[in-house]
Amino acid sequence: MSDQDAPAPADAEAEAPAEPTTPPDPAREALADALRRDLGDGFLEHANANGDLWIRVSRDCWRRAAETLKVKHGFDYFCFVSGIDWLENPELSSRYEAVYSGDGGSGEDGGDEAAPAADAGPTLLGDRVAGGDTRFTVFGRVFSTTKKWGVTLKADLDEANPTVESWVTVYRGADWHERETWEMFGFQFDGHPGLRHMYLPGGFEGFPLRKDFPLLARMVKPWPGLVDKEPIPGEDDDSEQQGEQQEAAAT
Amino acid sequence: MGLVESGHMPKPLTKLLNTARKYSLWMYQWGLACCAIEMGSAMGSPRYDIMRLGVIPLPASPRQADLLVVSGTVTDKISPALRRLYEQMPDPKYVISMGSCANCGGPYWDSYSVTKGCDQIVPVDVYVPGCPPRPEALLEGIILLQQRIADEDMAVRWAGEARVVAERDPHAEVPA
Amino acid sequence: MTITEAQQLAYISGQAAEARVRFELETEGMTLNIGPQHPATHGTLRIVVRLDGEQVVWADPVCGYMHRGYEKLAETRKYQQVTTLVNRIDWLGHFANEVPFILAVEQLYEVEAPPRAQWLRTIFFELARIANITLFLGEMGVQLGAFTPVFYAFRDREHVLNLMESVTGGRFHPNFDRVGGLKDDIPKGWVEETKAVMNKVRDFCDEMEDLLVGNEIYEQRTRGIGVIPARVGLEYGLSGANIRASGIDWDIRRDSPSPLAWKECDWKVWTHTDGDVWARYWVRLQETREAAKIVDQLCDGLPSGPIMAKMPARLRVPKGEAWISTENPLGEMGYYVVSDGGPSGPFRCKIRTPSFNNISIVPWLLRGVYVPDVISILASLYFILGDIDR
Q: Across the interface, do A7 and C342 touch by the CB < 8 Å criterion?
């Protein structure tokens, strides 16, 4: 455990960003093997990233995996449950390029990333750590206060019917987290006592953390960065080019 | 107060009453976010000591308050409650909007759940800028409000005008 | 994980109270709405409690009055801009909120800040802890009817805020942490001033101990009230002092690998076995003293050198995912950052805040307690609204 925090050398990164950055650890590998035996086909893959074990399980095993971890392996502390929407949002990811740099500054990296996405419609982000390729991922983390390390569980959900079993019967604290995830992503949790609104007023429509949920204020008002005439210090774009860009964006 | 209702207040009497009013503001603190802590510093810390300006914090209910300080982010969920408590305050009442969030949404200007400015819900007399404003800034806001109260024509105010002051009012069009 | 006899008894008596409410004293109930604007809730938490006589039968906290959508906004900001936002999650522990996010981004970017920056980060982190917990130590008295402590807390908190201001320019929201280091170095004479302030903080802790901890009324209103057995607390995900007061010896600063400088100093993680309101207060009191100790030691051994690693002006974080959590003043705060490799900000930024879990135990904890104890239990769980609602 002592060498888990050592930062991996930078040259290992460049080619394969999705690779685990730490060497396999016996305790974590043993847990992964035990879990693979318990879950069978439900255990899909695992990665050992920075002292934590990340495991992807199938959707049907979501609750069983947590139960096994808690009952058999002593992962007693519940950390969180949340979700990820992997839909790439060209509007958001290209914002920085559009606003802060001229055409010359970053032509080869920013421009052509956003352009095909706009043509082909929204795409999904790939290269996930212990991740599949559907649109939604539900993930949660549990921790062992005796082992002092944790496990992040992930499960892929399909877009049409994002439903998983609830963790409430395993960890009572999951109640609120699942309510929040339902509110933010629209995931259904089977067996949850009542998926009510957690944060938003009752009449709120849409699921805010989905990537296709628009921020209306941004549509009616330009990003305040546009008002800023000064270039960001250290950037190599010249200010006239930025000025032109701002005028074009403002009209 | 028959004089006030008749609409003819002698000038010296107005001046006297205004002076009395401006140094006995009961402040209902609507502490919402980070600014509430700075407001708390202004009230509780011996370094700032808001009471030396004649402001009395911590009234038991909004029905006993003259001044509402909205300090912090007003969200869409809290705004009905804000309006409701504001309406419970007796006239004449004043509102200070403290901090960027209460002024215009601040760093959350594009959020889906934040009301962009509490002046959409209650009429604001003084805006205190900052994120969060220092306690001194709140004290200055209160001094500005006191100047405004000193300039007020009570008879017109009692007649139901939203805001009647001698000075230029940049927010005259805010719906009450 | 052993449950002490006192815990067990308290748990059983809680169950008995519940049974009594259910069967023996079946009277017409009353629903009491506390909040959303109420002095006892430190902000805008609303709690709906159903009462039977003076006992709480059922309690349901309604959150969301301070929901500002950090996770969505973080997706629309650049990495450097996100610290401005996350400062404001737990507004009393300002700097401590930035650190886990920056560490997560540094992990993705595979850069590490130079030692001096890590030590200064640790110092500011602990200063934020002191600024946060001192207010709790005073506020607890207010909830129980003693007004004096909070004035002392505000008085001594100013010294810590002055320190932060002299370095960062902001009393509250320093926005000082950068990917790869810190924005600036400390001014001249800061270290000496800090050590003087730490003495004041220790004096303040002694003062609080004299004022509250030994007070008989205070003890009667806090001992044995709101007992959380460790097993239940863990299931709800309680962290920080709340779980340490139930006997779990777990502190992320000590137990998890971190590039920050906690491992360089000599300090102690305090636990208590009672798990009640009193224990939570006592553990936080000790924690403040330990924080002052840590700051003192770090100030003595502050290494020289640069405070910023070599970083490009435009940050392009490679694709990947990272999870980092730290022991914030309120408990475990963690960021799960997903980068899409683009030039804009994080693709997804899940923020795990301690108060959200800490307060989720309230429906369980408030069953069977009496109305006046509701306030002391809520105050002892110590939550910040921005930290619950995000």
A: no
| List of chain A residues whose C-beta atoms are within 8 Å of the C-beta of residue B109 | 217, 221, 224
DSSP E strands in chain C: the ranges are 30-34, 46-52, 55-62, 177-178, 181-182, 320-328, 331-339, 348-352
Question: Around Cβ C340, how many Cβ atoms within 10 Å?
Answer: 23
Are B113 and A218 inside 8 Å of each other by CB? no
Give me C302's structure tokens. 């502050």
Nearest chain A residue to B109 by CA distance is A217
What is the ipTM for the molecules in this complex?
Answer: 0.82
pLDDT score at A5: 42
- C190 within 8 A of C116, measured Cβ to Cβ: no
pLDDT per residue as tens digits for the range C314-327: 778 888 888 888 98
* pTM (whole model) above 0.90: no
Residues of C306-325 as b/e, b for ≥16 C-beta within 10 angstroms?
ebbbebeebbebbbbbbbbb
Chain B residues with CB under 8 Å of C157 CB are 41, 45
Summarize pLDDT for A157-186 with one digit per residue, the tens. Answer: 888 888 888 888 888 888 899 988 998 888
B107-150 confidence digits (pLDDT tens):
888 888 888 888 888 888 889 988 889 888 988 899 888 888 88
* Sequence-ordered list of residues with C-beta below 8 angstroms from that of C211, at least 6 positions apart, any chain: C141, C146, C148, C149, C152
Distances from the Cα of C314 to the Cα of A98, A100, A187, C200, C311, angstroms: 14, 11, 36, 42, 8
Taking Cα atoms as reference points, which of C65, C70, C68, C66 lies closest to residue C83?
Answer: C70
E strand segments, chain B: 25-31, 55-57, 67-71, 94-98, 126-128
Give the whole-number percent of chain C exceeding pLDDT 90.
9
DSSP-derived letter for residue C172 is: S
**Secondary element (H or E) of residue C242:** helix C241-244
Residue that has been written with the tokens 């002694």 in this structure: C206
- Residue A250 pLDDT exceeds 70: no
Cα nearest neighbour of B135 on chain C: C171
Decide: C341 and C361 in contact? Cβ < 8 Å: no
- Residues of chain B predicted below pLDDT 70: 1-7, 158-176
Give percent above pLDDT 70 in chain C. Answer: 90
Helix H, strand E, coil C: the string for B39-78 is HHHHHHCCCCCHHHHCEEECCCCHHHCCEEEEECCCECCC
H helices of A137-238, where? 174-185, 216-220
Q: Tokens 């502490």 belong to which residue? A: B31
Find the mean pLDDT for residues C355-383: 87
- Our CA-based measurement puts residue B108 at a distance from the nearest CA of chain A, in whole angstroms, of 10
Backbone φ and ψ for A157, nearest 5 degrees, come out as -125, 145
Question: What are the start-end ranges of the H helices in chain A?
Answer: 26-39, 62-73, 90-93, 95-100, 112-120, 174-185, 216-220, 239-250
Contacts of C168 (CB under 8 A, 6+ apart): C95, C124, C174, C175, C176, C183, C184
Owner of token pair 């401590």: C96
**Strands C331-339, A52-57: pairing kind:** unpaired
Which residue would you say has higher pLDDT here, C27 or B88?
B88
Q: How far apart are CA C15 and CA C367, in angstroms?
A: 9
Cβ pair C100, C112 in contact under 8 A: no
